[in-house]
């Protein structure tokens, strides 16, 4: 593996830029997934539990 030092430096700069931007995509995916789960929970609550009424 004879890499040119300039190419290695350019690759390191690209990786540093990606890391500097942070995990914005992962956070967006986690937020969307959480919103979907909460939305489904509300649908289930209003469609299943409320129509059954109070259980005594």
Short recap of the structure:
This is Cytochrome c oxidase subunit 2A. The protein has 56 residues and is mainly alpha-helical.
General description of the model:
This protein has 56 residues and is mainly α. It has one domain. Helix content is 82%, strand content 0%. The chain has 2 helices and no strands. The protein has helices at 5-21, 24-52. It is rod-shaped, with a radius of gyration of 24 Å. The mean pLDDT is 85.
How far do the termini sit from each other? 74 Å
Beta-strand proportion: under 5%
Main beta-sheet strand count, sense and barrel state? none
Q: Oligomeric status of the shown chains?
A: single chain
Helix content: over 70%
The topology string of helices and strands comes to HH
- Please work out how many helical segments DSSP would assign: 2
Point out poorly predicted stretches: none
Mean of pLDDT: 85
Tell me how many strands there are. 0
Q: Structural class of the secondary elements?
A: mainly alpha
- The Cα radius of gyration reads 24 Å
Shape: rod-shaped
- Total domain units: 1
Features:
single chain; 56 residues; mainly alpha; 2 helices
Element layout with pairings:
Layout: H1 5-21, H2 24-52
């Amino acid at each position: 593996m004879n890499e040119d030092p300039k190419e290695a430096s350019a690759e390191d700069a690209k990786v540093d830029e990606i890391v500097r931007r942070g995990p914005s995509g992962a956070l967006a995916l986690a937020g969307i997934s959480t919103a979907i789960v909460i939305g489904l929970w509300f649908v289930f609550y209003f469609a299943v539990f409320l129509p059954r009424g109070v259980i005594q």
